[in-house]
Amino acid sequence: MKKTIIYFLFTAILVGCNMNPNKEERIKKLETDNEILLKKIGNLENKIESNQTNKTVTKENNMDLGAFSVSLSVKDLKVSKKFYENLGFIQLGGDLEKNYLIMKNQNSVIGLFQGMFEGNILTFNPGWDENAKEIETFVDVRKIQEELKSNGINIGTEIDKSTSGPASFMTTDPDGNVILIDQHR
C-alpha cells in the first residue's frame, strides 16, 4: 500500500517536471529519492515483522505452569464421583474419607472437593504431569509468582522467596475466576 502511494506521488511529480526546466536533473533526483524511500520502508516492515515474531515466541514460551486441572466444589462427593465415572473418568487420587477425589479421563483432570472451598478453581501444578507424576525439570512456583507480579498481576498472599519445596498461591482473573498455582514438591 505504502509503495503504491509513493509510486503515484512519484509519477505525479514526474508529470509536473515535464513542464519545468531542468526536468532530467529533477527526474534523476526523484528516482534516487524514491529508491531510498522504498528501501527504508522495506527495512521498517522487516523490523516490525521480526519484532512481532520475537514477541509471539517469547510470550508463548516464557511460563510453564505445570499440569492443569479444574477443582470443583461439589455438594455430594459420592454423587459427583458416580456422575464423572459415567463420563469416563476414573479415580486417580484422593480419598472419599478426606472429602476429595482426583478424577482423570485421558489428559483431562478434575478434582472433586466437598466442603473445602466455595466456587470452582482453575489449578496448575508445577512439577507434575497430568498423571500427578513428577517431571524432571519444571519452573518453581516462586519464579512463576515473580513473573506474574512483574506483569502486574495481584498475587494475594505471597510465597516467601527464600523457601523451597511445596508451596502455593492464588490469583483471580478479570472475571473473578480463582486460579491456584499449587506445587507439591
Number of helical regions: 4
CATH architecture of the largest domain: Roll
- Identify the overall geometry: elongated
- Taking all Cα atoms into account, the compactness measure Rg is 30 Å
Distance between the termini: 56 Å
Strand content: 15-25%
The figure for the number of domains is 2
| CATH class category of the largest domain | Alpha Beta
Describe the structure.
The model has no long low-confidence stretch (mean pLDDT 83). The longest helix has 39 residues, at 23-61. 41% of the residues lie in helices and 24% in strands. It has a seven-stranded mixed sheet with strand order 2-3-4-1-5-7-6, with helices on one face. A hairpin with a 2-residue loop joins strand 3 (100-105) and strand 4. Helix 1 runs antiparallel to helix 2 (23-61). The protein has 185 residues and is α/β, with parallel strands linked by helices. It has two domains: 2-61; 67-183, 2,3-Dihydroxybiphenyl 1,2-Dioxygenase, domain 1, CATH 3.10.180.10. The radius of gyration is 30 Å and the shape is elongated. The two termini are 56 Å apart. The protein has helices spanning 2-17, 23-61, 77-86, 141-150, and strands spanning 67-74, 90-95, 100-105, 108-114, 121-125, 167-172, 178-183.
What is this structure's SSE topology?
Layout (H helix, E strand, L loop, with lengths): L1 H16 L5 H39 L5 E8 L2 H10 L3 E6 L4 E6 L2 E7 L6 E5 L15 H10 L16 E6 L5 E6 L2
Helix pairs in contact: 1-2
Tags for this entry?
about 180 residues; seven-stranded mixed β-sheet; alpha/beta
